[in-house]
Amino acid sequence: MYAAALAFTLFAVFPFYWMLITAFKQNRDLYVGATNLQHIPWIFNEPPTLHHVRLLFLNTPYLLWLRNTALVGALVVLITLLVAVPAGYSLARLAGRWGERLGIGIFLTYLVPPTLLFLPFARVVSWLGLQNSPWALVLVYPTFTVPFCTWLMMGFFRSVPRELEEQGLVDGYSRLAVIGRVVLPLAVPGMLTVVIFAFTLVLQEFVYALTFISQVDRMTISLGVPVALVRGDVFYWGSLMAACFLTSVPIAVVYSAFMDRFIAGLTAGAVKG
C-alpha cells in the first residue's frame, strides 16, 4: 500500500518538478540532441539561470494576464453562485416531481458542444459591443457553469433533511430565514465545489478566449502564455514552464485547502443526516 501511495505521489509531483527544472535550465542544457547519451534530462547539467523567468516577467504582460484571469474568474464565480444556488434549491424543494425533470433538462444543456454555440455567442457579443474585451468572457462562461452547478447544487440541497427546515418553520422562522440559517450552512461544501469548478473552467478555457480576445494585454493566462511564448515553430520552453509552474502551484495549494474543507463538510453532513 505504501509503495502504491509513493508511486502515485511521484506520478503526481513529477510534472511540477519537470516544470521547475525546465524553467531554470540554461538553453544549452535544455536544447540537447538525442544523440548525446551523457546528458541527463531530469537534473541540472549546467548551473541554473533566471533568464527564462526574466523573459516571462519583463518581455510579456504576464502580470496583466494574471489580473485579467482573476477578474474574470471572480465575476464568473459570483454570477454562478447567485444563479445556481437559488435555482438548485428551488428545483430541489419547491418544484415537486418536475424539479428532477427540469434539473436533468438543465444539465443536458451543459452537454451541448461549445463549437455549436460560436455563431450565436459571436452575434450577441458583437451586438453588445464586447469584442476584444474580457467582459465577453464574463458573459459567455456562466452559460457553461450555471447549468452544471445548478444540477450539482440540487443534489446537495436534497441531501439536507427536510425535517430540519420543517422544524425551523414550526419554530416561527420564515422560509428565507430557514434557508439562511439552516440550509445554506449545510450546503457550504456544495458551494465550495461550485467555486472550484467555475474558477477552474476560467483558468483553463482556451477556445472562447481565443475567439473573443485578440489584444495581448487583454488576454487571460490560458491564452496569453501560448500566444506570446509560441512564435511559429519556436517554443520558449523555459518561459512556458515558468508560467505554468508559477500559475499552477498556488492553485494546487488553494485547491488542496478547499478539498480538506469539502471532505470535512461532507463528513459532518453525513453524521448530522
Low-pLDDT runs of 5+ residues are 267-273
Strand content: under 5%
Helix content: over 70%
- Sheet of most strands: 2 strands, antiparallel
Task: State the distance separating the first and last CA atoms.
Answer: 32 Å
Number of strands: 2
SS summary, helix count: 14
Overall pLDDT metric: 83
Helix/strand-derived category reads mainly alpha
The coarse silhouette is globular
Query: What's the Cα radius of gyration?
Result: 23 Å
Walk me through this protein's architecture:
This protein is an all-alpha fold and 273 residues long. It has helices at residues 2-23, 27-30, 51-59, 62-94, 97-110, 118-127, 134-140, 142-158, 162-170, 175-186, 188-204, 207-212, 221-229, 237-272; strands spanning 230-231, 234-235. Strands 1-2 form a two-stranded antiparallel sheet. It is globular, with a radius of gyration of 23 Å.
In short:
By secondary structure, this protein is mainly α. The protein has 14 helices and 2 strands.
Task: Please supply descriptive tags for the structure shown above.
mainly alpha, 14 helices, 273 residues, 1% strand, disordered C terminus, globular, 2 strands, two-stranded antiparallel sheet
Layout of secondary structure:
Layout: H1 2-23, H2 27-30, H3 51-59, H4 62-94, H5 97-110, H6 118-127, H7 134-140, H8 142-158, H9 162-170, H10 175-186, H11 188-204, H12 207-212, H13 221-229, E1 230-231, E2 234-235, H14 237-272
Antiparallel strand pairs: 1-2
Helix pairs in contact: 1-14, 3-14, 4-5, 4-7, 4-8, 4-11, 4-13, 5-8, 8-11, 9-10, 11-14, 13-14
